[in-house]
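Quick illustration for those who missed Monday's session on complexes.
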Amino acid sequence: MSSSYDLVVIGTGPGGYVCAIRAAQLGLKTAVVEKRATHGGTCLNVGCIPSKALLHASEAFEEANHHFADLGIQVGTPKLDLAKMQAFKQGGVDGNTKGVEFLLKKNKIDAYHGTGRIAGAGRVEVVSKDGGNHLLEAKNIVIATGSDVARLPGVEIDEKVIVSSTGALELPKVPKKLLVIGAGVIGLELGSVWRRLGAEVIVVEYLDRVLPGMDGEVGKQFQKILTKQGIAFKLSSKVTGVEVGKSGATVTVEPAAGGEAETLKADVVLVAIGRVPYTQGLGLETVGVQLDNRGRVQTDSHYATNVTGIYAIGDVIAGPMLAHKAEDEGVALAEILAGQSGHVNYGVIPNVVYTFPEVASVGRTEEELKKDATAYNVGKFPFTANGRAKANGTTDGFVKILADAQTDKVLGVHIVGADAGNLIAEVAVAMEFSASAEDIARTCHAHPTLTEAVKEAALAVDKRAIHI
Ligand code: FAD
Ligand code: NAI
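Prediction with flavin-adenine dinucleotide bound:
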């Protein structure tokens, strides 16, 4: 392999590998450096893909356990083979990581396995596990090193009793009692997996609501739905300590505002209080790349750091820590480096929680619009009034569209419901084209589909929904 490149990307998560492929498509001589044995980063190895595989399998188990009989299907009591389910999950991971390896080869991208360190302007040193060493020359360097689990002071993650998402995806048996710290997206997705498989799940959350950052009404409804499913919540509470003993963990919980502490027992404790940017070992101090006050690599609107020729994308910079955001930044940056005008519209990045029902949102929340004193109209439509949802027996949830009061432009859409993650795509496209609620309302939607609830919510913005 040559050691002189137009572009060297450090990290092959969704940000890094996509950036490398787009750069190679545009004719840049490109190499990637990855310290994991497989490509695909957090997302493919220990994030999006394994979690979705377990969500899919555990939902099928739940269906067979509790809902098949309602559909007239008698299968008896289904038995869980957790080892097989974990193998199913791993099959999905392997298929995806091998796919990335294939794509890198297909695009003639050189892949170096080892830890990358920026040794100076235009130089990346790669140290492989066996101690081997490569020095790469690069006209441009992209930092795409992603993020790591945020730790709770004094609570040591052993990935057995006290686990991060990585350990929670690998549990060898279903815990009797799982205590989740943090009612964010990881807590609720992985809490759902283990509840469906038979664990008693309690979620302790510092704030007074679940899914902070998402629309408030969505959070409230969604919490009710999860409570109905059997997940218990302890809101406005903080975990101040976890003691691991012979028979699991004893967790000390206090009211967030202060007050009397109580202790809760659990077999497994999942720490899911957020993620932090990962820059360890990159040598950023040596080359003088600036970080912001939250440890993220600071970039301008073209992903350039303060050091000429060094760029950064994905979880390691500001913005939502989402795979599709990282990918789009990868494409935009590759295009910028090739002299084109790459761009990401941060106002239209969908956010999906893959529970059942799913939660999906794009654009502004009602709380944000109120804070900015933006005048808006709301159109809401419940799935109880949607023909297909009724036929399928999946009537939990609603679609809510927020549109500008003067122009009718769609400002935000929030959905709780089966398949919400797919439903949100049409409004993301509509918003990219600056659509009004009227535009969505006048678009013919196939019957009977769940998408009709989106159309009806758009009609409801003008108070003329048909089916409610
Ligand atoms: P990463 O995917 O973290 O990749 C960074 C890569 O860089 C890693 O492979 C790492 O090994 C490598 N690296 C780091 N330092 C070095 C170095 N010095 N040298 C060489 N290599 C290095 N997002 C979604 O959009 N949808 C989801 O459903 C979703 N589910 C998730 C579920 C879980 C449990 C978790 C933890 C995250 C989930 N995410 C999801 C978030 C998503 O995984 C991240 O937003 C995404 O992976 C970020 O991509 P990235 O390329 O910036 O970094
Ligand atoms: P999160 O930021 O979504 O949620 C963390 C939660 O923990 C918040 O509700 C916060 O208030 C709470 N919290 C913080 N400190 C606490 C404490 N001491 N005690 C109790 N609660 C506390 O973070 P999470 O769930 O860890 O996920 C990390 C990131 O991974 C997400 O922000 C998201 O970007 C990404 N992700 C995306 C997924 C998706 O798109 N479906 C799935 C999983 C992860």
